[in-house]
Design a protein that fits this description.
Layout (H helix, E strand, L loop, with lengths): L6 E5 L4 E6 L9 E5 L4 E4 L5 H10 L1 H4 L4 E5 L18 E5 H9 L2 H9 L3 H9 L15 E3 L2 E6 L2 E7 L9 E5 L4 E3 L17 H14 L3 E3 L9 H22 L4 H7 L14 H12 L8 H12 L6
Parallel strand pairs: 4-5, 5-6, 6-7, 11-12
Antiparallel strand pairs: 1-2, 2-3, 3-4, 8-9, 9-10, 10-11
Helix pairs in contact: 5-10, 6-7, 7-9, 8-9
Length: 314
C-alpha cells in the first residue's frame, strides 16, 4: 500500500485497486483501477488536476506494466471527471446521461457558483475550498454506451452497467466478476449522506437491489472507505426513509423547505453532509408534483446552506 497524508492506494484482489481519499467531505471521491495483462482500466478521475496527478503517480507502479488504455466516468459530477485531461489519450467511456450532465456543469460553472456573494457562494467556497478548479480543460467521453457493456481489460472481464437515472442522469457501476468486486460510483456514499440530484428515488432503490444481486463481496463506494454489501442496504434504507417522510409532509401541505427543516434524521443523523436532505426533499416533491419547477445549482446549494450553517445564509 502506497500512501500520503490524504489518500491511499489500496490493493484488492485479482488486479483491482482503489485510490481512496481519506479526507472526508464534499468532493473527496474515490477512483479505481483494474489492471490486466498489459492494459488497465481507470474508473473515474478526481475533482482537480493536482489530486488526479497524485492519484496517477500513486498507481504508477502498476500502470508502468499495464498502461491505462480505458477510462470509465461513472457519472457526470465533476469530482469523477474533471481530471480527464490527464488521461485524454485513453478511450473514455460513459453513459449518455452522464455526458449530458457533464455538458451542463463543468469547471467554469463551479467557479461561477463559488464566486457569488450569496449564501450558495459562501457555502460552496467553504465546502469546495480544498479544490483548485483553475486550469482545467473539460475532456468529455469519446465513447458512449447504453444499458450494459462488457470489456476485456488485459484478460479480465469487466461489466459496465448503467443503473441511472438515480443519483444523476446516468450512473455507471463497474463490476469485476472474477474479483467479486463492484465499483458503485455515487450509488453508495459510505458514511455520508446520499444526494438525489436527479432521481427518481425508486430507480436508486432498484439500483441498490441490482448491485446486491451481483453478489460482490467487495464494494468500492464513490465516497468513503471500501465496504461490503451492507452499505447498499444502508443507502436503500436512507432513501426509503426520506421518501416516506417527505411524502407525508407534501400531503400535509408543507413546502419542500419546511419539510427539509422538519424531518428528523433519527438513525441517519450520524451521516456526514446531512444538509443534502434539502436536495433530496425537493427531488421527492418534484416526483409528487411534476409541475414544480426545478431549482438551479445556486438555489439548491442555498437550501443546503440553510440546513448546514444558517449563519452564512443571512
Amino acid at each position: 500500500m502506497a500512501s500520503d497524508t490524504t489518500a491511499q492506494h489500496v490493493r484488492l484482489r485479482r488486479g483491482c485497486h482503489v485510490w481512496h481519499e481519506t479526507d472526508r467531505g464534499w468532493g473527496m471521491s474515490n477512483a479505481g483501477l483494474v489492471a490486466g495483462r498489459g492494459a488497465s482500466l481507470l474508473i473515474d478521475t478526481l475533482y482537480d488536476l493536482r489530486r488526479t496527478r497524485r492519484m496517477l503517480d500513486g498507481f504508477a507502479a502498476v500502470t508502468a506494466r499495464a498502461p491505462i488504455a480505458t477510462v470509465v466516468n461513472t457519472h457526470g459530477n465533476g469530482d469523477h471527471w474533471f481530471g480527464n485531461q490527464l488521461v485524454e489519450s485513453a478511450e473514455i467511456i460513459a453513459s449518455r446521461g452522464s455526458l449530458a450532465d457533464m455538458r451542463q456543469v463543468g469547471p467554469a460553472q463551479m467557479l461561477g457558483l463559488m464566486a457569488g456573494d450569496t449564501p450558495a457562494g459562501r457555502f460552496t467556497r467553504r465546502i469546495f475550498g480544498p479544490f483548485d478548479f483553475s486550469g482545467i480543460t473539460p475532456v468529455l467521453p469519446n465513447r458512449l454506451y447504453e444499458r450494459d457493456l462488457t470489456l476485456d481489460v488485459g484478460g479480465i472481464p469487466v461489466e459496465l452497467i448503467d443503473v441511472g437515472p438515480a443519483h444523476t442522469a446516468g450512473d455507471t457501476v463497474v463490476h469485476v466478476p472474477d474479483a467479486r468486486t463492484v465499483y458503485t460510483g455515487d450509488i453508495v456514499f459510505a458514511g455520508s449522506t446520499p444526494v438525489v440530484w436527479y432521481g427518481p428515488f425508486d430507480n436508486w432503490v432498484a439500483a441498490c437491489d441490482r448491485i446486491i444481486g451481483l453478489g460482490a463481496e467487495t464494494v468500492v463506494p464513490g465516497h468513503g472507505p471500501v465496504t461490503t454489501g451492507a452499505a447498499l442496504h444502508a443507502t436503500r434504507a436512507y432513501l426509503e426513509y426520506v421518501h416516506e417522510q417527505a411524502s407525508k409532509r407534501h400531503a400535509a401541505g408543507m413546502t419542500a423547505r419546511e419539510a427539509a427543516h422538519d424531518i428528523p434524521l433519527g438513525r441517519f443523523a450520524g451521516l456526514e453532509e446531512s444538509e443534502r436532505l434539502a436536495v433530496n426533499v425537493h427531488t421527492v416533491y418534484r416526483e409528487l408534483d411534476p409541475g414544480l419547477p426545478p431549482l438551479d445549482g445556486p438555489r439548491l446549494f442555498g437550501c443546503m446552506a440553510e440546513l448546514a450553517c444558517p449563519q452564512i445564509s443571512l
